[in-house]
Amino acid sequence: MSATATAAPVNEDRSFFGHPRGLATLFFTEMWERFSYYGLRAILVFFLSASVANGGLGMDKPLASSVVSVYGAAIYMSALAGGWIADRLLGSQRSVFYGGLVIMFGHVCMALPFGSSTVWLGLALIIVGTSLLKPNISSVVGSLYSKTDARRDAGFSVFYTSINIGSFVGQLVTGYLGEKVNWHVGFGAAAVGMAIGLIQYKLGARHLGNAAAAPSNPLTPEERGKAFTRIGMAVAGVAVVLVIMQLTGTLDAHGITNAISIAAMVLPVIYFAVMLRSPKTTKIERDRVKAYIPLFIAATLFWLIFEQAANVLNIYADERVEKTVFGWEFPASWFQSVNPMFLVLFSPIVAMIWLKLGQRQPSTPRKFAIAVASVGLSFGVLALAAMLTGPDARVSPLWLLLVYAIQTVAELLLSPVGLSMTTKLAPAAFLSQMMGMWFLATSAGYGLAAQIVPFYSAENEIPYFGILAICAVALAVLLWIGTNRVRKLMHGVS
Ligand code: GLN
C-alpha cells in the first residue's frame, strides 16, 4: 500500500453512502470482474464436456471437472505474483487496470468459436489478468481509509457485496446464453461485462486519488537485476518442466492438471517454511505463523468442498435435479447464483448476530471449526438425498437450495473472518504476502479437489459425498479440541 495514500484527501470523503466516492468505482469494477469470472466458471464444465457436435470440446466429464478445479487453483495461486508486481513495480491502481484489460482479452478469446487453442489461451490470459486485478483491488479499497478509520470494515463488507451481486447476475446471464443459445455467446457476455467494468474504472479513477497508486516497496536499481534474474530462473524452471513433460509424453490436459495440482499443494508448504525460518520473523510472530497452519489446513478443506460448486454440483444440478417449471427447463448453471444470492441476504443477519454477541462471540478457531463442520454437513445432505432417491431418480431442487444455504452460512463464518485474521497474524515483514497466503488456501483446496472430483458419479454419490463429509467433521472436531492451544500461539489475537 502506498505510503502517500494516507495523506490523500480521499480519506476524508464521505460522498458514497458515508464512504469515499472511490469505493463506488471499485465496487462496480469488482462487480463486473466477478460477473465475468463467475459467469465463465458457471458454464465451463458443461462447455468442456459437451460433444464437439454440440459446440463443446468433447472432454470426458471427470477430466473436464478436474480442469475446472485446476483453473481455480491457478487463478488463486497467481494472486501471489500479482501482489508482488503491484508492491514492487506498478502500484495497485495501474495493476487493476492492466489486469482488467488482460481479463477482457481472455474472455474475447473464449468467445471466438475456433476450438481448443483459443480456449486455452483465453483461460491463461484470464489467470494472468486476475492475478493483477483480484488481490490489488482489495489493497486499493484498504488505502481509501486511514488505518484508524472506523469505516474500514464496513467498506470491506460493502465491497464483498459487490462480488456477490456480480457473481449472481453474471451466472444467470452467461448460464442462460451459454446453455440455451451458444457457449461462445455466453463467454462473449463475460467479455462485455469486463469491458463495462474497465470503462467505468477509467471514468471513476479520479475518485481514487493516489490510494495505492505508487508501488509500496519499489524495486531499487540494485534489486532490479537480482529480481529479474530470479524471475528468469523461475520461468526457465517452468520451461524445463514443460520440456520434460513433452519428452515423457505427459504434456496433455491430464499432465498439466497434475502439475498444477502438485504446485498448489507444495507452494504453501514452501511459503510456511520461508516465513518460519526467516530471521525477520520474531519469536511471537513465529508462534502466530504456527497458529495459522491448522487454520490454513481447515480453510483448505473448506474450499476443497465449497469450490466444487462449479464442477461436481453443476453436474449434479444437470443430471440429478428436477429443473422444469411451467413446462420450461431452466439452465442447470442457474443454481450457481443461489450462493451469492443467499450471501447478500444472510450477511446483514450474521453481522447483527456478531454485534449482539459482542465479546461472547466464538473465537476465530471456533468459527473455523463450525464452518468446516457445516460445509461437511452440506455434503452429508447430498449423501442423504442419494440414500433416499437412488441414482436414477431426479431430486427436488430444494435439496440443492438447502445445500447452498448451509454452505453460505459456513462461508460467512470463514471467508471474511479469514481475511481479517490473516492481516492480524501476518509477520511484519510478510504483510502483503500473507494475503496471497490466504488465497493459497483456496488454491490448495482447488488443487486437491482436482484429484478427487473425477471420482464423482451419480452411482457413487453416497461414498463420494459421505467420505468428504466425514473428513470435514473429523477435522472440525480436532480443531475444536485444539482451540486453546491454537489461541495460545496467537498471543492475544482473537
Ligand atoms: N467468493 C469470494 C470471491 O470471489 C471468495 C472466494 C475465495 O476466496 N475462494 O472473492
UniProtKB/TrEMBL annotation:
Keyword Transmembrane: yes
Naturally occurring in which organism (per UniProt): Streptoalloteichus tenebrarius (strain ATCC 17920 / DSM 40477 / JCM 4838 / CBS 697.72 / NBRC 16177 / NCIMB 11028 / NRRL B-12390 / A12253. 1 / ISP 5477)
SUPFAM superfamilies found in the cross-reference section: MFS general substrate transporter (SSF103473)
Subcellular location per the Swiss-Prot or TrEMBL entry: Cell membrane
Membrane topology label: Multi-pass membrane protein
Entry similarity comment: Belongs to the major facilitator superfamily. Proton-dependent oligopeptide transporter (POT/PTR) (TC 2.A.17) family.
Database matches in PANTHER family: PROTON-DEPENDENT OLIGOPEPTIDE FAMILY TRANSPORT PROTEIN, RESISTANCE PROTEIN MDTM, PUTATIVE-RELATED-RELATED
Domain Major facilitator superfamily (MFS) profile: 25-487
Keywords attached to this entry: Cell membrane, Membrane, Transmembrane, Transmembrane helix, Transport
InterPro entries assigned: Dipep/tripep_permease, MFS_dom, MFS_trans_sf, MFS_Transporters, POT_fam
Name used for this protein in its record: Proton-dependent oligopeptide transporter, POT family
Transmembrane regions listed in the UniProt entry: 38-57, 63-84, 96-114, 120-145, 157-177, 183-201, 227-247, 253-274, 295-317, 337-357, 369-390, 396-414, 435-456, 462-481
Major subcellular location class: membrane
